Amino acid sequence: MSLPADGWKNKKGTGSRSCNCGSWKDHWINNSKKAWPSTCSISGCNNAATLGAHVINSKVSGEKIVPACASCNKLDSEFSLKGGVTLVSANKQETCEK
Ligand SMILES: [Zn+2]
Ligand SMILES: [Zn+2]
Predict the structure, then answer these.
(1) How many CB atoms lie under 10 A from the CB of residue 54?
(2) Ligand 1 center to residue 25 CA distance, Å?
(3) What residues make up the domain containing 47?
(4) pLDDT, one tens digit for every residue, the chain (98 residues)
(5) Which pTM does this prediction carry?
(6) How many angstroms does the Cα of residue 78 sit away from the middle of ligand 2?
(7) Number of structural domains, the chain?
């Protein structure tokens, strides 16, 4: 799966969404099968990753979850992701509720 590093934005209005995993952080862990990273996935940010952020990209279909910090989860502008970041589908039918 090759995804662009640039051109990502936060999907607005997702704060009240939930899934079977309990949190979007757990959703990322359950579906990536990876350990939660120590730092935020957004390029240039070295804060601790504390939540799973819903992100979208005009070149990518569907919404994705990436590990992020609380301040990056509030970004209004486009941002880039660090290299090697794992994105998990936010589509519950493809992941935890299939
Ligand atoms: Zn889930
Ligand atoms: Zn951050």
Answers:
(1) 21
(2) 9
(3) 8-91
(4) 578 999 999 999 888 889 999 999 999 999 999 999 999 999 999 999 999 999 999 999 999 999 999 999 999 999 999 999 999 999 999 999 98
(5) 0.94
(6) 13
(7) 1
